[in-house]
């Protein structure tokens, strides 16, 4: 069974979805940090939140590598349909998980902790 042009369209859709997810993580991290600093003066960002803030641009490597591998599979290995399907599934799952993890970490960031008779963020 050969990989058809429809599968190439599926690859590009998955790569665009992945790039959109990475773009969302980058923008959401910047705007959430601004909001956090405005609402919680003196509060400290969590380590994961700082990592999202500083390294979100490096996540654009994921869709670029996925596109390169997918195009290579389409051109050089047209019989590798299982590998192609696995690649598409991993791209979609990674994109969804990345956006969900970013939202979760930034929402956890805003939960106050009560210690020493005051609330801390």
What would you note in describing this structure?
With 121 residues, the chain is mainly α. The protein has one domain (5-111). Helices cover 73% and strands 5% of the residues. The protein is built from four helices and two strands. It has a two-stranded antiparallel ribbon with strand order 1-2. α1 (5-39) runs antiparallel to α3, α1 (5-39) runs parallel beside α4 and α3 (61-76) packs antiparallel against α4 (81-108). The longest helix has 35 residues, at 5-39. The mean pLDDT is 85.
Outline the fold blueprint.
Blueprint: H1 5-39, H2 47-55, H3 61-76, H4 81-108, E1 113-115, E2 118-120
Antiparallel strand pairs: 1-2
Condensed summary:
The protein is mainly alpha-helical and 121 residues long. 73% of the residues lie in helices and 5% in strands.
List keywords for this structure.
single chain; 121 residues; mainly alpha; two-stranded antiparallel sheet
Q: What coarse outline follows from CA principal-axis ratios? A: elongated
- Helix amount: over 70%
Tell me the count of domains.
Answer: 1
Structural class by helix and strand composition: mainly alpha
The parts where pLDDT drops under 50 for at least 5 residues are none
Question: Order of strands across the widest beta sheet?
Answer: 1-2
- The end-to-end distance, rounded to whole angstroms, is 56 Å
Q: Please report the number of helical segments.
A: 4
Overall mean pLDDT stands at 85
Total DSSP E strands: 2
**Biggest beta-sheet profile:** 2 strands, antiparallel
Q: What pattern of helices and strands is seen along the backbone? A: HHHHEE
Strand content: under 5%
- Structural Rg: 19 Å
């Amino acid at each position: 069974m050969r990989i058809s042009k429809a599968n190439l369209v599926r690859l590009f859709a998955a790569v665009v979805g992945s790039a959109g997810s990475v773009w969302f993580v980058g923008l959401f991290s910047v705007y959430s940090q601004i909001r956090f600093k405005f609402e919680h003066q003196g509060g400290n960002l969590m380590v994961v939140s700082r990592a999202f803030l500083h390294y979100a641009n490096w996540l654009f490597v994921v869709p670029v590598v996925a596109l390169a591998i997918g195009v290579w599979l389409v051109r050089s290995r047209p019989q590798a349909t299982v590998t192609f399907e696995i690649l598409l599934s991993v791209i979609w799952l990674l994109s969804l998980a990345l956006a969900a993890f970013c939202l979760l970490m930034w929402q956890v960031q805003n939960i106050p902790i009560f210690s020493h008779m005051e609330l801390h963020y």
